[in-house]
Amino acid sequence: MSLMLTMPAIAETGFPHGLSVGLGASVLGGINVSAGFYNSNYESYWLRRLGARIDFATTDPLKSAIDSAIDSYMRDGRDVGDGVKIDEGTLDAWHTSVLVDYYPFAGAWRMSAGYAWGMATLDAAIFGEIERAPAQRFYFYLAGDHYYYNGNNFNGAATIDWNYHGPYFGTGFDFDIGCRFGLFLDMGVILTNRPATFSLDIPQEQLYVYNTLTATWSPVSIPQLDADIARATRKANDKLSDFRIYPMVKLGFLYRF
Hints:
Blueprint: E1 19-26, E2 30-37, E3 50-58, H1 63-74, E4 78-81, E5 84-102, E6 109-129, E7 137-142, E8 145-150, E9 153-178, E10 181-191, E11 197-201, E12 207-211, E13 216-219, H2 222-240, E14 245-256
Antiparallel strand pairs: 1-2, 1-14, 2-3, 3-5, 4-5, 5-6, 6-9, 7-8, 8-12, 9-10, 9-11, 10-14, 12-13
């Protein structure tokens, strides 16, 4: 007669099985890290279909590479009209999101909803130069007024800031590739009531404006320049106000404990 003692099996459905960490890249967000929980082995219909995640992304680790790519795209400047070009763009961005995932078939495909907030800032240098311009002047229009710079060139700066937050809706996949490793893909949008804002900085030095009443050129006054900049930025911001959707696409690796 023999006696066998057996230890109770550890349930695969218990905590912490299903914990995961992820590392990937986010379009317009940079390096993305995440932590979540999802376990398809639960007996409950809803528990084996629901998961939760929190993630964070930032462009800081890739800043030099992103700025170099923008500079390469700009090359000698991109013409935006009236002889004005943009150059030397830089991008800074980050975002955080808290999500609930629903796996309809307890498989790889999921639908996600939650809340996200973040910031994206795009800075660009503005410059212009016209060869053989009369009297070595650079002419351009701003808010309907005619300006010129002495010296045949000018330099300024433009910035687009988007500080956003709002509900997130998306879809995605978690593909198992073995040894607890997997691939993840996220595609979604943030619905926000805070559109991007545009700002413009134009130096006043050596700047002249055309007076249509006297048909003469005279040094620009700061109030007049500020008023024209305000009109130009207001027009740009009116157009930007139509965009209230911030897209998100993420791809990377995950490890599930």
